[in-house]
Target: Glycoside hydrolase family 5 domain-containing protein
Amino acid sequence: MQDLVDGIRATGAKNVIMAGGPAYSNDVGQWAAYRPTDPAGNLAAAYHVCNFNTCSSESCRNSTLAPVAAQSP
Model:
């Protein structure tokens, strides 16, 4: 994801970048450890909710998604 952010910013774009994780952007468990740096400060954690993904229960969202949402838009 860092290469993606760098490539977008290299074009001069200042827009919001939504960067997701694996499993169709359903796994944000490692977001804090691998969060890309964005010189524009305009980065959001992307999360895709589907009932067939690994993290589809309320308890998983509370334990995995809530900490990411508390520190990243």
Q: What stands out?
A: The first strand starts at residue 17 and ends at 19. Residues 2-71 form one domain. The radius of gyration is 13 Å.
